[in-house]
Amino acid sequence: MACLWVQEIGDGDEVYDQPVLPDASIDVISGGDNVVVAGPATRPLTASLVPRSLTVGIRFRPGAAPPVLGVTAVELRDQEVTVSELWGAAGETVAARTTDAADWRARLGVLVDGLAGRLDDALPADRVATGIATTLAEHPGQPVRLLADDAALSERQLRRRVEVAVGYSPRTLARILRFQRFLHVARSSQQYRRDLAGLAAEIGYADQAHLTRESSRLGGLPPAALLDWERERLTGAQK
After folding, report:
1. Which of 72, 66, 218 has its CA nearest to residue 140?
2. pTM of the model
3. How far apart are CA 121 and CA 74, in angstroms?
4. What is the DSSP letter of 122?
5. Which CB contacts under 8 angstroms, 24+ apart, belong to 93-102?
6. Could you read off the pLDDT of 32-89 as tens digits, one per residue?
7. What domains, with CATH codes, occur in the chain?
């Protein structure tokens, strides 16, 4: 898995809008009285979280979740499925135990135990697909032909294996990982960077117009507007 995460919304009267942008990950999430699996996204979403709500989750690295969950990533693409739908009675038990958990630590413990209990019957992750995801995170412009040659597969075979494990074709995976790299680099500065042309070149986009198109498709806004909105949202949340 990639990480465990917790999000608590404080007191107040306003609903908190949390953007959810494509990142090639699959999350198992406990919020309210249910546990869901959020599949790999291809479009931006906004989660509306009410005051005093608690959400916890387990995030998997690209390609690692399907053997544990018992379903392919492509079946989960742009879907949110309850664990009871996936695992039947075992999923209902996990959901009930998270509802009864006293705090966020206990909730996470229930999720971890529920997933750990499935490991004995899980098949190994596809190392070719997970390796492709790692390569594209570092070199998103790598041609699919070369990736297939390195894996001793045809392009068609490579596409099928990556889609089953990650939920996207290699080209779509590269687009999403490059967009996430843009967000990471833009956020890494104390002040969000405004040289979008230079940033586009650094990340590997053809030009600023290419970055703008991808940000609009994957982030819902052009890059400058997306970064401004994120900064304003986070500043408001800290007040």
Report:
1. 218
2. 0.90
3. 21
4. P
5. 94/35, 95/30, 95/33, 95/34, 95/35, 98/30, 98/35, 99/33
6. 889 999 999 999 999 899 999 999 999 999 999 999 999 999 999 999 999 999 999 9
7. 3-121 (no CATH), 127-238 (1.10.10.60)
